[in-house]
Write a structure and sequence with these properties.
The structure holds 2 protein chains of 2 kinds. By secondary structure, chain A is mostly helical. Chain A is 78% helix and 0% strand. Chain A starts with a helix and ends in a 5-residue tail after the last helix. Chain B has a single domain, classed as MetI-like fold. Chain B is elongated and about 75 Å long. The chains are: A mainly alpha, B mainly alpha. Chains A and B meet through helix 1, helix 6, helix 7, helix 11 and helix 12 of A and helix 4, helix 5, helix 9, helix 10 and helix 11 of B.
Chain lengths: 309, 269
């Protein structure tokens, strides 16, 4: 178990190093000159040269990367060219809004997805199963930002019960959460349905049935325990996908989170902020996967006891 | 092996064919020029009417015609990006699964790194750097979406490599290239076809999202994602402007999803 833990952490760190290299290279190929971005187009060559020197832009690429990595490890992600604030501080101030939204959406999508998947598996092969399959495929196929706009029109404009974006109390959370959760819910319900169908074909289910247990108990206690495990891993892996949804949802709802910060950064070609937000989201994804992995190995005795690596 | 097409698969196939037909016949099907002002209501979006069933936008252009022409961009980018995604994904998955060892380790760790980066952010940053154009958009979508294909192809290749016919072919001294092309590839082709259908729904969604964020195929080409973005300003006064292009995206993405899941279902039976 401990060896497993160590291996996962080393692996996570390696992935982060890789992502940092990729974000660094993106920043390097951006044609905009950071010195011009800071000093303005009318700055004289001398000022530009001194800014370049100050930023270390006159150094070889690998030294720039080493410095970047060193500073990033100390929590220094540089200063935003446009906002002229510390990138790390900007990210920290925007993080709570994104975390609330993402967690709420993740919980809602898991609850909805598990309910839909279990219902479909219970009616396997019948009309209700097919109807649920089509519903989940429709949910998966909806563009997030369009769903958000439609919910905004329906809930904010016609029903007048929800605020039209921004943050003004807990009610503001409802529409963005729905927007972000419905697509994932459709996805999870498909996965759970497949897993449940596989589990229901196993020998131990026949044994449980043979013991005279009720169908509901067989499904919920015996089959679900096996079908839920892969879902935990998937929910962790899906976090990268969820983050793409976060960017779109935050843009539609004017949500003060990291997704919109990243969107603005890319629009302004604000390089340190682009690198910071991409790296930070990769960091979140790696950490979440690590937690999921550990949770998984703790939930599954076969891994806990070292039978499968 | 061949079984009858299921209802889902048939519905998906019919929807895909209808999409291709609309895109190909756009000049004949669309009632107006999608780039010209045809309504008199310049400056204000026009509500749906008999003359303009889906209304007109703030520049007096016919929304229905723009949606019909938008199918061209979506399908072109979606399918071309998928072809690129498949090429990269299949190549990496095959090499990784077939050779194993260090090759597998390096390629899969690279895949893990790509999986940990949020695809949309990465794509936005790339397109912003390359300047939005038809070419840059489809290149970038291909570059950020191959990870899933690579993983599935690797797993399938691994299971193939252990089969008896592979051992036999190897024992006969077949060259690795011949083993991959003659023995592995034909056997994993069915799953690649499924991935192509499911993957196209992904590239379509990503294309529309990039357009929505303003880094898609540039104007005046009508694109569904950008139509929604432009309609956001008018969502209080002209909600239909955002509604119809979204339904078009939903239809296209659903078509490929139904096709893909339908094929999967048939394989599982």
């Amino acid at each position: 178990m401990l060896a497993y833990l160590v291996r996962r952490i080393v692996f996570g760190a390696a992935v982060l190093a890789g992502t940092s290299l990729i974000t660094f290279l993106i920043a390097f190929v951006i044609p905009a000159d950071p010195a011009v971005a800071m000093a303005g187009a009318k700055a004289d060559p001398q000022t530009l040269a001194s800014i370049r020197h100050e930023l270390g832009l006159d150094q070889p690429l690998y030294i720039q990367y080493a410095r970047y990595l060193d500073r990033a490890l100390h929590g220094d992600l540089g200063r935003s060219y446009v906002r002229r604030e510390s990138v790390a501080r900007l990210i920290v101030s925007r993080f709570p809004a994104t975390a609330i939204l993402a967690l709420a959406a993740m919980m809602l999508s898991l609850v909805l997805g598990v309910a839909m998947g279990a219902l479909a598996a219970a009616y396997r092969g019948r009309a209700a199963d097919n109807a649920l399959l089509v519903i989940s495929l429709v949910l998966v196929s909806m563009p997030v930002y369009w769903l958000g706009t439609m919910l905004l029109i329906a809930g904010g404009l016609y029903l007048r019960s929800f605020p039209l974006g921004g943050w003004s109390g807990p009610l503001s959370l409802v529409l963005p959460t729905l927007t972000l959760a419905l697509g994932s819910a459709g996805y999870y319900s498909r996965i759970l349905h497949t897993n449940l169908a596989d589990a229901m074909d196993q020998e131990f289910i026949r044994t449980a049935r043979g013991k005279g247990l009720s169908p509901a108990r067989v499904m919920l206690r015996h089959a679900m325990a096996n079908a839920m495990l892969p879902l935990v891993t998937l929910a962790g892996l899906d976090l990268a996908g969820l983050f793409s949804g976060v960017v779109l949802t935050e843009t539609v709802f004017n949500w003060p989170g990291i997704g919109r910060l990243a969107f603005e950064a890319i629009f302004n070609l604000d390089i340190p902020l682009i690198m910071g937000t991409v790296l930070f989201s990769a960091f979140l994804i790696v950490v979440a996967n690590l937690i999921v992995d550990l949770l998984y190995s703790w939930l599954d005795p076969r891994i806990r006891l070292g039978e499968i690596r | 092996m061949r079984r009858r097409m299921g209802a889902l698969e048939a519905a998906g196939a019919a929807m895909v064919i209808s999409l291709v037909a609309v895109a190909a016949l756009a000049p004949i099907l669309s009632p107006h020029d999608p780039t010209r002002a045809v309504a008199l209501t310049f400056g204000d979006p026009g509500a749906p009417s008999l003359a303009f069933p889906m209304g007109t936008d703030e520049l007096g252009r016919d929304v229905l015609s723009r949606i019909i022409y938008g199918a061209r961009i979506s399908l072109t980018v979606g399918v071309a990006a998928m072809a690129l995604t498949l090429t990269i994904g299949v190549a990496i998955g095959l090499l990784s699964g077939f050779f194993g060892g260090a090759t597998d380790f390096v390629l899969m760790r690279f895949t893990d790194v790509m999986l940990s980066l949020p695809a949309l952010l990465l794509a936005m940053a790339f397109v912003a750097v390359l300047r939005p154009s038809l070419m840059s958009v489809l290149l970038v979508i291909g570059i950020v979406s191959w990870t899933q294909v690579a993983r599935v192809v690797r797993a399938e290749t691994l299971s193939m490599a252990r089969r008896d016919f592979m051992l036999a072919a190897r024992a006969l001294g077949a060259h690795p290239r011949r083993l991959i092309i003659r023995h592995v590839l034909p056997n994993i082709l069915p799953i690649i076809v499924v991935m192509a259908a499911l993957g196209t729904s992904g590239t379509l969604l990503l294309e529309s999202a990039l357009s929505f964020l303003g880094v898609g195929v540039p104007p005046p080409t009508p694109s569904w994602g950008r139509m929604i973005e432009e309609a956001l300003v008018y969502f209080r006064t002209a909600p239909w402007l955002a509604t119809f292009p979204g339904l078009a995206i939903l239809y296209a993405v659903l078509a490929f999803n139904l096709l893909g899941y339908g094929m999967l279902q048939r394989r599982a039976r």
